[in-house]
Amino acid sequence: MAEIFNVDESFDRNRFDGACCAFGVFDGVHKGHQALLSCAIEDAAKRGSASFVLTFDTDPDEMFRPNELKKLMTNGDRIQALAASGVDFVAVLPFTREFASLPPEQFLAWTFGEHAPASIHVGCGFRFGARAKGTDETLAAWGSRNMCDVTAHELLCLEGAPVSATRIRGLLSEGAVEEAARLLGKPWKVRGTVVSGRGEGAQMGIRTANLRIPDNLRSIGDGVYAAYVIVDGKRYKAAVNMGVAATFADRTTSNCEAHLLDFDGDIYGHEIELEFIAWLRPMRAFDDVDELIAAIMSNIEWVREHL
Ligand SMILES: Cc1cc2nc3c(=O)[nH]c(=O)nc-3n(C[C@H](O)[C@H](O)[C@H](O)COP(=O)(O)O)c2cc1C
Ligand SMILES: Nc1ncnc2c1ncn2[C@@H]1O[C@H](COP(=O)(O)OP(=O)(O)OP(=O)(O)O)[C@@H](O)[C@H]1O
Questions:
Q1: Boundaries of each Riboflavin kinase domain copy (predicted)?
Q2: Average pLDDT for residues 180-190, to the nearest whole number?
């Protein structure tokens, strides 16, 4: 695990001397991000120096488009995933309004002081600084004045297009969890706290853990999915319904329900993790509760056989 530093007034910028940095937000730490991180790691190995990833404590989009944003992971999970990516150090910049308003040159001067690293790696089209005015060319011009090799890498393309967090969010919103997992390099996951439901699941003979998932992490479209659910470190197969149950839309508030196979515990108040594996069907309103039960039972059987 890499050591994580907050880049504030107290941070010792000498640490950047000679280092090779990958720079960006990295929501999802997807395969494109992993390719860029590998460039910084390989460069550092050649130079015999340290590899860094330079990122922000808060995703800038949370400040600029808070209502539309559907994130792939929390900021905390993103920083932990970067720390586990193979780099030596994670340097976390405080994304305050003041910092966000720095023009590109001042942004770089504040970040590095007199300690420009040996190299910076970004993807083509990378933007930074106030109003996203800084481009990879701005960065390269600053690099040539500060003896820092800047490389804007071709974006990794998979399945016909560049991999990006935006593309993965789009796939999840359509329920395409398998394709999203191929671009992420792992299934998409989300955590939520188990809250009480209306008790109708138990009456129907199908108990469900009702979850509260923060709105900005509900990247996935409504529908029924096959998933794994991790409870206190143990993994269970599950059939999951995302979205307000259409049949009971007037009476329910929960936005996600999971039926865990072969599980009979009381987990109210627990934080559990859902790992989405396959799309099963759209959610729909049923006129008859027996039909709803039959549909859910067949989803559960599918999960039992295929996961
Ligand atoms: C795998 C699965 C699929 C579901 N599909 C639907 C659906 O298509 N339409 C619907 O109205 N509710 C659906 N539900 C939600 C049930 O209606 C819900 O579990 C029931 O209302 C119990 O709610 P409660 O836990 O709040 O008591 C589904 C639930 C599960 C676990
Ligand atoms: N497919 C890719 N291949 C290589 N580098 C990439 C790729 N996607 C992003 N990068 C680079 O990784 C760093 C972090 O990128 P950023 O967080 O902007 O990712 P993104 O996936 O493009 O996000 P978004 O879709 O929200 O713009 C940046 O330097 C960016 O240019």
A1: 183-304
A2: 97
The percent of residues in the chain predicted with pLDDT above 70, rounded, is 96
Q: Average pLDDT, stretch 6-18?
A: 93
Where in the chain do CATH 2.40.30.30 domains reside?
187-306
Instruction: Indicate the class that CATH gives domain 187-306.
Output: mainly beta
Residue 148: alpha-carbon gap to chain centroid: 30
DSSP string, 36-79: HHHHHHHHHHHHT--EEEEEESS-HHHHHSTTT---SS-HHHHH
To the query of whether residue 305 is one of the catalytic residues in this protein, the response is no
Q: Whose CA is nearest to atom 19 of ligand 1?
A: 201
Nearest ligand 1 atom, CA 249: 11
pLDDT interval class at 252 (50, 70, 90): low
DSSP, res 187: -
Residues 179, 257, 271, 273: which is the catalytic one?
Answer: 257
- The average pLDDT across 97-115 equals 93
Ligand 1 center–CA 267 separation, angstroms: 18
Q: Which residue has the tokens 């600084």?
A: 129
158 CB less than 6 Å from ligand 2? no
